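User: Is it possible to get a 3D structure for a protein together with its bound compound? The compound here is G5P. I've pasted both below.
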Amino acid sequence: MGPSRQLLRAVILGSPGSGKHSLSLRIVKHFQLKKLSSGDLLRDNVLRDTEIGVLAKDLMGQGKLIPDDLMTRLTLQELKNLTQYSWLLCGFPRTLAQAEALDRVHQIHLVINLNVPFEVIMQHLDARWVHPASGRVYDLEFNPPKVAGTDDLTGELLIKREDDRPETLIKRLRAYEDQTKPVLEHYQKKGVLETFSGTDTNKLWPYIHACLQAKLAQIHQHPHEEKCL
Ligand code: G5P
Ligand code: MG
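Assistant: Yes, that's possible. Here is the predicted structure of the complex:
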C-alpha cells in the first residue's frame, strides 16, 4: 500500500458524559472514517441478550468496567471487519492492559482526550435521554428530540440510561479516573496524545477538526512517523 493510502488509527477518550459520542459522530461525518464505540458494542450485546451481554449488563449497571480480556477480544474481533478503513475507537482502550493489547496489533496515530469539568459532565448526564434500540442520544437543550420524549426516527419512547443514575455515575467517574490515567500517560509518552479542554462541544469541535486534518496530512506524507504534531 502506497503512503497516500495510509489509514488513520485514532482513539477518542474522555470521562462519562464528556461528549465522546457527540464528537465522534461529527468526526465520522467530516472525515469519512468508521467509528467503533465500546459502550455501543456492549449495549448491543445486552439488547441481543448474548453471553457477553448478560455479564456486561450486570457490570455496567454497577458502574464497573468489563474485564480487560473480554473487552479486548470483543474490540479486536470487530476491528477485523474494518481493516480497509480509517477508524476511530470511542471509549476503548480504557485501561493500560487494553492499550498494550491494542498496540500489539495496531499503531495508533492520534488519541483525542476530552477534558471537561465535573459540573458540566453532571449537567450533561442529567439532561441525557437515549433511544436504546438505535443508540441515538438526545439532550433536552443541546440536541432535543423533535417531539418531547420520543425518538426522531421511530417515534418510540426515550429512556434514561440505567447507568446514568447518580449513584452509578459517581462509580463510573471514579473508575474512569483510576483506570484511564495510566492510558493517558502511555499515549503521552508515545507523543500521540492531544488534550482538548472546555465545557462546550461546539467550541471544541473546530480545534479537533483542525487537529485531525493536520494528522491526516502528516500520516499521508510520513506514514511511518509516530511523533504527534
Ligand atoms: P460508555 O458507553 O463508553 P461512558 O460512560 O464512557 O460510556 P458516555 O456516558 O456514553 O460515556 P459520552 O459518549 O462521552 O458519554 O458523552 P455523550 O453521550 O456524547 O454526551 C453526554 C450528553 O451530553 C448527551 O446527552 C449529549 O447530547 C450532551 N452534550 C454533549 N455535548 C454537549 C454540550 O456541549 N452542551 C450540552 N448542553 N450538552 C452536550 O461506557 C459505558 C459502560 O460500558 C463499559 C463500562 O461499564 C462503562 O461504564 N465499558 C467498558 N468497560 C471496560 N473497558 C472499556 N473499554 C469499556 N468501554 C465501555
Ligand atoms: Mg457514549
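The helical segments are 20-31, 38-47, 51-61, 68-79, 96-103, 118-126, 166-190, 201-221. The pocket of G5P (ligand 1) is lined by residues 14, 16-22, 38-39, 42, 59-60, 63-66, 71, 91-94, 98, 124, 128, 137, 139, 141-143, 163, 172, 200-202 (CB under 6 Å).
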